[in-house]
Protein 1
Amino acid sequence: MINNIMIVLQVFFGLVGLYQLFLSFFGWYRKKEEITHAPKKTFALLVAAHNEEQVVGALLENLQQMKYPREMYDIFVICDNCTDGTEAISNSYDGVTACVRTDLEKRGKGFAIEWMLNKLWEMPKSYDAVVVFDADNLVNTNFLQYMNNDLCNGRQVIQGYLDTKNPSDSWISASNAINYWFCNRLWQLPRYNLGLANFLGGTGMCFDSNLLKEMGWGATSLVEDLEFTVRCIQRNIYPKFNFDAKVYDEKPLTFKASARQRLRWMQGHFEVTRKHLIPLLFQGIKERSMTKIDAALYVFNSYNFLFGFFITIVFYLNYLLPVNSQLISVYGYLPIWLSVPFMIYGLLQLPLAMYLEKVSSKMYFRIITYPIFLLSWWPITVHAFFTQNNKQWSHTQHTRGVRLEEVQSKQG
């Protein structure tokens, strides 16, 4: 009985992995985004901040220097339950509005964005679109040009390219950077090239204001970005990935901080999976929509990690403990001409993504420690599964107060 269950699980998860591997081939190429529209759209730039006095100033200086008419965008800092100098620093910049929110019950960025949007709709000035950043970000100065272009082309939800501003600070920040380069190139870009839906990443997100007013934000889970993505896809609104609109995010420096952040992500991911997976999958099957089926498979990723851990542990125990029969590994029955290229390509995906992204050669040495980071997802995922009802938001402290010029000089 256990053998039959294990065979079914191996086949199912093997096919899911094969599907993603197939998609990745469509990330080998990309067409550079072209700016064909003059500035037309007005923007409200929302900066989500909780005790971010160390980094918010660099972002505000950055946003004031955007290559976009200054009168066509305004900057709002959501000082969410701040107890430091975030509000004072924000108010010290001309043209920046600090909006103070105090609510110790409804904590987290999802609630803060919802609160800010309600305030925004009540203001006398209206905006064509809303862009959301985190306080630790830095943004390429042409970001709004790309957002304007996509909005003028009829897009309603756009996700910018998420890069890392501190990849060299520690092996943890390097692992996060490698993970993002891989996801941008071999997860997000293939879906864009194939006309599938892309997925929001929590920052560098642009929304058509009329859509937000119609839908309402309503995304208050620990992964508000994924939650809103699913709600959009269910409404046949497919987020678009703009590869050339870059945002630089600060990654944790220590394993403890990274584990805490990833635990929060996975807890939220399990909640979204529980609420939306089955309806989204059935909708995709009923409508024969590959876009929605693909989105359902993406939402299912939390269980990919969970069952991957389970299957691995069961096989190790089977080999180590005295048992009457050994479990069957279906992968051992695959022909060599199929299994060997499959494994080789799987191993080469990380350096391939980094090569395609023109990453500094020094960062390739960081691949050595990346497997430790990858394996650590398993216990984090298991912990998240059993604590998924814990919706307590945890803050990741940011201290890397660098300027955009410094980040770009290191890249170039």
Protein 2
Amino acid sequence: MTAPEPWTVGVLIVDDDPLVRAGLAMMLGGAPDIRVVAEAGDGTEALSLVDRYAPDVVLMDIRMPAMDGLTATETLRARGHAPEVVVLTTFDADEHVLRALRAGAAGFLLKDTPPEEIVTAVRRVARGHPVLSPAVTRRLIARVAGTDHDRRRAHARDRLALLNDREREVALAVGQARSNADIAATLYLSVPTVKTHVSGILAKLDLNNRVQIALLVHDAGLLDDRP
């Protein structure tokens, strides 16, 4: 019997700068478990290429002509069986990054991130892990907070009210950037039980990942008095 071929992560690179695309493709092409399936110069082209190649991960620039990366991310993440999206930016306090995270992006990378960290991030995202911690997300929120604070807080609290008491405790712990093991120890639960609660929270609130849980907890004002 022949051994099954190892799984490779299919990646679509989306950026309007050909040099950036070439650099990312070269960087990722050196990893044996990652395959660049295509490149796109704007969001419209990206949507078409996702349909054609079904990548596992999309590296998405935000500022592009025609359809920008934010619109493309929102469109992709609204689909069933959507690829994971990592947004690329030159600023870590970009309000557009925050909107992309709210839309379901798995995280963001600065364009000057070291090559090995970008490769690691792609692998992590392909396995369902966000590439930034909720603590980083909270700092981002604090720097780009908008004027719709009261409306967003009321909406977030209404959504969290859909959870039972234990789920709210777990959601708060996720917002505090705690790992599953730390949450389990704090709440006297097993790690599998914590994972079950996190999955239940995501399903009840129609969220994609832990980052979105952390955003919702922050929006509800539950972290305001915490370090």
